[in-house]
Amino acid sequence: MSVSTQRFLWAGGLPYLDGLTEALRSAVPTIEAHECVGSFRRLCATVGNLDVLLKTVDPERLSRDLGACFGKERIRREKDGSLLLHGSVSGRASKQAIPFRLLASTPDFWGTALFFHTGPAGHLEEVVRRAACRGIAIAPGKFPACEETDIYAAAALPWIPPELRDIPDVCDWADNGSLTDRIRDLVGVNDLQGDLHMHTTWSDGSNSLEEMCTAARDRGLRYLVITDHTERVFVAGGLPEEQTLRQWDEIDALNNRLDGLTVLKGVECDVLENGDLDLSDHALARADWVVASLHFELDQPRGQITRRFLKAMEHPEVCVIGHPTGRIIGHHPGCDFDAETIFKAARETGTFLELNSNPRRLDLDDVHCRSARERGIPIVLSSDAHSADGLDVVRFGINQARRGALGKSDVVNTFSWEDVKKRSKKG
Ligand SMILES: [Zn+2]
Ligand SMILES: [Zn+2]
């Protein structure tokens, strides 16, 4: 069994976490509660270690129990007296193991330990500084706080969700009175009314049109847009134009039979190397929704690829740019576009930008999402599902949206289809 030395996807860490906590629960009865900390708790796209904080009233006994379970030699006392255990956990379905760290705290320091182990360093410093200005010294192992809210209260701040703590100026939002509202308005999975990007067996999806509709309905969605690939994306079963048109006839017929769910005619149209679209204007005009995405030649020089995006965004039928950077986490960093120019064009042309929820993409990322929001550009949060179960990846997109401080109203598909259409270029 090899232990991964690379960061792993947040989504990939989930089953490992389940396995680890299950093992702990059955083998170590002294654990009263546990919570993830570190970058996992902050919902970062990738994570280096699975860090779990354990609550116990009896640290000595916990130490013995953990030693018996994982080996005494793995346990270390930290400078502040807390316990640390290094190990690795293997997944049920994977040969790869990932590293974990177990940390422990007594209930009276639980909030303190949660706060300091969650990080990141810049956020800790700022909260500690604000508390110090009020004459309160906060330090690990020295300032007892049962809950994290006690720490923030000492700094005259509301509790800040972990996913916002990487935002450098998040505490300053309290100074202008917007922090509480922004925390309250953060987008959640249940806010999504529709999904605007998915594939079927017509191209490279593994479920049929009807099956995707059933899956969308089962998940409480009100509308879905089918966006299969165009011909240029031959590796993904891209459809020649006449087949796309034939699929849309089928969607029209299906729609007449559906009750309480609207299925819409869309396409994920490839943006060719010169910025042209891989479908005729006539066909694009017939679509309810057009996602324009780059799939090839992502390594074009910055000026060239930026112009390619601009040309696509200037097209009157293009509603949204799909997976804008094209990054594949751990494999391709994504294209080198001029983000400012792209954002400006998105705003001026009324083209939305996508947050693609595929955990390997998460594209736009949290930082770009925040920039887009600041510039008033609506974000489409899509699954890009290639199967019925693939619709569930929106939870990973939501993680990044929240890290990007997107509110419900910043995400296009939290609105009804009528409103989405009205706000889009096609409306
Ligand atoms: Zn794509
Ligand atoms: Zn797609």
Overview of this structure, please?
With about 425 residues, this protein is α/β, with parallel strands linked by helices. The protein folds into 3 domains: about 1-105, Beta Polymerase, domain 2 (2-Layer Sandwich), CATH 3.30.460; about 120-185, Beta Polymerase, domain 3; about 190-425, Metal-dependent hydrolases (TIM Barrel, Alpha-Beta Barrel), CATH 3.20.20.140. Helix content is about 35%, strand content about 15%. It is built from 16 helices and 15 strands. The chain has helices spanning about 10-25, 40, 60-70, 110-120, 120-135, 150-155, 170-175, 180-185, 210-220, 240-255, 280-285, 300-315, 340-350, 365-375, 395-405, 415-425; strands at about 1-5, 10, 35, 45, 50-55, 75, 85-90, 95-105, 195, 225-230, 260-270, 290-295, 320, 350-355, 380. The protein has a 7-stranded parallel beta sheet with strand order 9-10-11-12-13-14-15. Strands 1, 3, 5, 6, 7 and 8 form a 6-stranded mixed beta sheet that branches. Strands 2-4 form a two-stranded antiparallel ribbon. Strand 9, helix 9 and strand 10 (about 225-230) form a beta-alpha-beta unit. The longest helix has 18 residues, at about 10-25. The radius of gyration is 24 Å and the shape is globular. About 45% of the residues are buried. The mean pLDDT is about 95. The structure holds zinc ion (2 copies). One zinc ion (ZN) binds near residues 268, 293, 295 and 322. One zinc ion (ZN) binds near residues 268, 293 and 295.
Radius of gyration: 24 Å
Counting helices, strands and paired strands, the structural category is: alpha/beta
CATH topology of the largest domain: TIM Barrel
Low-confidence stretches: none
* Overall pLDDT confidence: 95
Task: Give me the CATH superfamily of the largest domain.
Answer: Metal-dependent hydrolases
Number of separate structural domains: 3
Strand content: 15-25%
- What's the CATH first level of the largest domain? Alpha Beta
Strand order of the largest sheet: 9-10-11-12-13-14-15
Instruction: Spell out which ligands are present.
Output: zinc ion
